[in-house]
TrEMBL record:
Protein name in UniProt: Small ribosomal subunit protein uS17
Pfam family, one: Ribosomal_S17
GO cellular component: cytosolic small ribosomal subunit
Tagged with keyword Ribonucleoprotein: yes
Entries under Gene3D superfamilies matching the protein: Nucleic acid-binding proteins
Length: 89
């Protein structure tokens, strides 16, 4: 019998860096998107701050993480920690 792997849509995952862990079981991460401007051909950076649920308080400032979209957990939290990609140095 094969073990079934859970497939997760790539659109539900967000990759970013942790900028704050001041709250209990919550962290703030920054997601940066780069796009080329259609007319001026300049690369434009857009940053978005997200609040992410971290059940075990295992992240540190500077960690690179993956967060997955979930049901609303509070007024501002819409994501939860999926995986720590790289620990801060």
């Amino acid at each position: 019998m094969e073990t079934a792997k859970k497939h997760i849509k790539k659109s539900l995952l967000s990759e970013g860096r942790v900028v704050s862990t001041a709250m209990d079981k919550t962290l703030v991460m920054i997601v940066e998107a780069r796009k080329t401007h259609p007319r001026f051909k300049k690369i434009v950076r857009k940053t978005v701050k997200m609040k992410v649920h971290d059940e075990k308080n295992e992240c540190q400032v500077g960690d690179k993480i993956l967060a997955i979209e979930t049901r609303p957990l509070s007024r501002e939290k819409r994501h939860r920690l999926f995986k720590i990609v790289e620990k801060a140095k």
